[in-house]
Amino acid sequence: MGMQPHVLMITSPGQGHVAPLMKFAHRIANNGIKVTFVNSDFIHGKVVAVLPDEAAARGRIRLVSIPDGLDPGEERRDIAKLMESIERVMPGHFKDLIEKVNSSNDNEQITCVIADITLGRWPMEVAEKMGIQWVPFCPFGPGILALLLHIPKIIEARIVNSTDGSPLNDELVCVSKEIPVLNSNRLPWSCPDDARLQATTFRMLFTTVQIMDFSKWVLCNSFYELDSISCELIPNILPIGPLLASNHLGHYAANFWPEDSTSITWLHQQPAASVVYVAFGSYAILTQPQFNELALGLELVGRPFLWVVRSDGSAAEFPDGFIQRVAEKGKIVSSTGVPILCWPYYGDQFLNQSYISNKWKVGLGLDPDENGFISRHEIKEKIEELVLDDGIKANSMMLKEMARKSVSEGGSSYNNFRAFIEAIKH
């Protein structure tokens, strides 16, 4: 029996990175290809801790981990520190892992490495030196990739500094007439309150330009019809999304926190399309005053809401009496094609807001005051505007249907995925 395809996948340590790549891993495994999935030791521990035993036992994906260079108790919400440690420590451990896997069974050697593009060059460099095919995976949309390819021109035009990406002028950045513009202080690497994080992120994103230049494909968690203009600007892009949890059966090892099953029961008790869903991902942290305004804004709206508050100690305290006052309308949980209210924090979220609000018109953005603060009244007004806008609802349903068609048999993402599977099998 000849050597079977064996894909090794490695992801950045964020919920929005682990989840789509794990969904992609399941789709690959469903096509009879062996998959080994690599997390950092820290994220691996979180994922395995909330994975039901029966799911772990019957899973067809091997879960492994390597150190990220930080001690177990060290703060990982310092993203710059974490990124620098990963780049310094992980390449050696990644190489050792591949060698260990390859020496264990001649018929199961690694034949392809799929790496989160936000990790930078090192996974690809390790794979290339070992003679293994490599493919970058992009968890965000093609608009960001098109913008990143534009970085040399942005630097040449003296819009941003070439070393840390800080804005030199207050200008609008335009990649194409059909792609939403961004202000120079709201680019994917913009972190005006954290110069170290901005410089680290800018350097990491700049390397993706070189990765795209040398890769045969750039896998992307999007679909062609959603942003065809950006796709046309990236010759080797292969959109294979949207990657949905419903594409496979059972549990999948990508959750950082336990699922709250009571949410489903509670949602079924609410009128259709009446619930406001609130979540801020695995990194965003609100100040106590801003947290209070969000809570009081939700209370002012008076609609049912489901609010996901992380259980890692990063959340602020609820205003006095809030929990009791909203007990009948709101549900607060510690884990877990609708209109969207955008509150961007970091990375691709700024461009996402422009697409959602201005191009696709499936949501609205929140407008901060002159101090960057978003009031409870702004939150209330935008939620009410959002839920009453039939045009936004119609656009949301249209995009949902477009996405469904793209991953169905004969759709663009379906065909791209089939072509990719055939390529790595032969």
How would you describe this protein?
With 426 residues, this protein is α/β, with parallel strands linked by helices. It has helices at 15-29, 41-49, 53-58, 79-104, 122-129, 142-149, 151-156, 195-214, 228-232, 262-268, 288-301, 322-325, 349-359, 376-388, 390-407, 412-425; strands at residues 6-10, 34-40, 61-66, 112-116, 133-138, 172-173, 182-183, 218-220, 237-239, 276-278, 305-308, 330-333, 340-342, 363-365. Strand 8, helix 9 (228-232) and strand 9 (237-239) form a beta-alpha-beta unit. Helix 4 runs parallel beside helix 5 and helix 11 packs across helix 14 (376-388). The protein is globular, with a radius of gyration of 22 Å. The two termini are 15 Å apart.
Task: Spell out the blueprint of helices and strands.
Blueprint: E1 6-10, H1 15-29, E2 34-40, H2 41-49, H3 53-58, E3 61-66, H4 79-104, E4 112-116, H5 122-129, E5 133-138, H6 142-149, H7 151-156, E6 172-173, E7 182-183, H8 195-214, E8 218-220, H9 228-232, E9 237-239, H10 262-268, E10 276-278, H11 288-301, E11 305-308, H12 322-325, E12 330-333, E13 340-342, H13 349-359, E14 363-365, H14 376-388, H15 390-407, H16 412-425
Parallel strand pairs: 1-2, 1-4, 2-3, 4-5, 5-8, 8-9, 10-11, 11-12, 13-14
Antiparallel strand pairs: 6-7
Helix pairs in contact: 4-5, 4-8, 11-14
